[in-house]
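pinging the channel bc i need a second pair of eyes. not urgent but kinda urgent?? the chain im working w is below, pasted from the shared doc
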Amino acid sequence: MHRNSLTVGTVALALVVASAAPAAPHGNPPKLPQKPPKSDTAECYSGAVRSKALWFRAADGKVLAGAVYGSGHRGVVLAPESRGSHCGWIPFARRLAAAGYRVLAFDTRGHGQSPSPGAASWTRIDRDVIGAVRKLHALGARSVVAAGASLGGAAVLVAGPALTGLVSGIIDFSGEPDLGPGAGAKAALPRIQAPLLVVAGRDDPYADEQTSKEVLDAAGSSDKQLLVYPGPWHGWELVRNAPTAAGARADIFRWLALHT
């Protein structure tokens, strides 16, 4: 396994407790369906995976669906890839939970179980990230790390400046600097102050080693690190199915342990 580490390195994940979301401005959020939907999100809300489903609100008040894995006082938010369902995070969320973290993985607005937000705010998934971080704090988290994969990684970077003082670290799995809500991740990078970990596949066709170095260099964080692994692996596959996934998970857990 080849790994390239830059700058100061290791951020710990702060996890937190999650339960029912607060009442909506104009009534209670809709209830979760009694039966799993006929889609790839079914396993996320079924009894096959031990979790607690919940509703919570994005920073702009939109209703979001999520699930909490594990318990403990350290919290981790996991933002999904472009299809918007958190299902792909389940294997990693369960590993985090086994290590003592409480994880809030969520479906972005208008995807998975999360209702449509309306056309005007469809892309503002950075507000989803902020809402998830706030939810973990409201539930008692002492520290929270915000992480995201691919488009979710870009969204975490866009949210980064607004997360100053709210998170103990940010993890970007293959987030592309030209993606993201609003002006995109590139515009937000210089204003990020939280510790930052960027995880990348060396030959990823979307966010390769060079692109990930550019993300790291542009970030305003004084504590930042880049982990690069061989191959074209992208997003959550870096810790799920890639041949180097076990090593990547170990590296990330060490980084998390130093920042919680």
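so Residues 42-257 form a domain with the Rossmann fold fold (CATH 3.40.50.1820). and The longest strand covers residues 63-69. — does that match what u expected or am i reading it wrong
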